[in-house]
Amino acid sequence: MYYSIHYKSTVGDILLASDEDSIIGLWIGEQKYIGNTMPKNIIEKDDIPILKEGIAWLDDYFTGKKPKISRLPLAPIGGEFRQQVWKILTEIPYGELTTYGHMAKEVAKRIGKNRMSAQAVGGAVGHNPISIIIPCHRVVGTNGSLTGYAGGIEKKVKLLEHEGVDMTGLFVPQK
Questions:
Q1: What's CA 4's distance to the chain center, in Å?
Q2: Is Nuclease set as a keyword in this record (predicted)?
Q3: Is the pTM of this model over 0.90?
C-alpha cells in the first residue's frame, strides 16, 4: 500500500508519497512523467510517520537548513540503471551543480563501461520520482544550459536560487 500527503512550498504544491517505511515519491504539481513514476494505488493519509519525517525534511529545506538526504529512507521505484543514476544524484552537494556529461562518465565508471550516453542519463534524471530530495535540479547541460527539469525550468531556477547557486553563466536554451 502507498500513502501520500500534500505540502505547500515556494515552488508549488508537492505530493509526497511513501510505502509506509520509505519515501517513494515527491512530485511538484503536475510535473512531466508524473503518470510514469507515481503508483496508481496511493491513499492520502496524514498520520504516516515517514511522511511526517518527509514534511519535516521539506520544512528544513525550505527554511534553508540544508537537511541531509541520508536522514530519510528512500525507495524510488525504477530499474537498475535508473537506480544507479538516482544514487549519483544523491551525492551532489547542496548548492552545487554537475552536468549530464559528468554524470554519464560516473555511471559508466560504476557499471564498468567505457562510456555512457548523456541522453540516457538525462532520461533517468528526468524520471526521478523523488524530486528535490533526490536533487535532479542540480544537473545542468555541459554548456550551462538549464534543461531537463520535469517540474519545469522556472521551478529548477527557484530551487537553485534557494540553494544559493551562482547563476552566472547558466541560461535557459531557446526552443
A1: 17
A2: no
A3: yes
The C-alpha cell at 48 is: 504516516
**Rounded Cα distance, 105 and 98, in Å:** 11
- In CATH, the number for domain 2-71 is 3.30.160.70
User: In the CATH scheme, what is the code of domain 80-162?
Assistant: 1.10.10.10
More confident residue, 174 or 150: 150
DSSP label at residue 62: H
The active-site residue, picked from 50, 88, 103, 136, is 136
User: Which residues make up the CATH 3.30.160.70 domain(s) of the chain?
Assistant: 2-71
Residue 136: active-site member: yes
Residue 163's SS3 state is: coil
How does pLDDT run across 57-71, given as a tens digit for each residue? 999 999 999 999 999
C-alpha cell at 51: 511522511
Residues of the chain with CATH 1.10.10.10: 80-162
pLDDT in tens, 42-99: 899 999 999 999 999 999 999 999 999 999 999 999 999 999 999 999 999 999 999 9
Contact 83, 127 (CB under 8 A): no
- Cα atoms in the 13 Å half-sphere on the side-chain side of 73: 9
